[in-house]
Amino acid sequence: MSQHRIGIDLGGTKIEIIVMAPDGTVALRHRIPTPRGYPDTVDGIAGLVRDAESRLGINATVGICIPGVISPATGLVKNANSIALNGHRFDYDISQALGREVRVDNDANCFALSEATDGAGAGYAMVFGVILGTGCGGGIVFHGQVHRGPHRIAGEWGHTPLPWPRGPEVPGNLCWCGQHGCLETYLAGPSLARDCDGPGALDASGIPARAEAGDQIAIDALERHADRLARGLAVIINVLDPDAIVLGGGISNMPHLYTELPRLIPAHSFSDVIATPILRNKHGDSSGVRGAAWLWPAA
Q: Could you tell me which residues come within 8 angstroms of residue 113 by beta carbon, excluding any fewer than 6 positions away?
């Protein structure tokens, strides 16, 4: 029997829920502010699920995307920037609260799954999904299945070093993870803003308009960013050779990337021909919550 799916995107400031009908359309969407504290967060999510099912008269599967991962060693959430989650058995606790199995995954994996299922990457066998926002991450989907790896770190591309560094890129920027030279410190939105406008800058959204108006500082910053992103993606192509790469997050809205990256990547790839499509996401900010719903695939 066809099944409704509930997807939940647990963020630092809001929790979004959708109910996806069996045909993939969204039957309900609702947001609430993220509660303070872990117990209230679990209760809030359980309440959202019960309310949605009651309003639609359904029983649905539940998938949740979180800004972190569940450690396979401890069963506890780690690396979540919603710090109330860290150190808790979130998947177990929410399953107990709802009385059913609940599937939980990283937000980058959910983004990649959404875009591979019915988004920009639909129809491609292997999709690498990239999030370029306040941070930098990735997810790998192969034949409709998320590849997580035994340590749940597959796709953690933002915490690999910038390839082929040169000049002031050596020894590399200090990352919050404790390493130097991580791609996140060059490619995330705040990283681009700082490269353009100095240490206190955070917002990169206006840089393309400045470049279009002839601001040489903005032009140079976008050129450096595109070159660094191309080097980072060239390594992904060399290692995974995905059928398509889908960009997400705020940086993905910068249109020059879709002409510049195909031009720049081949110089760093170990092949005579590189034709990997670099695609803009289809579902935008909804990709995470839709991917959470798709953690339960069609029967």
A: 105, 129, 139, 141, 146, 291, 294, 295
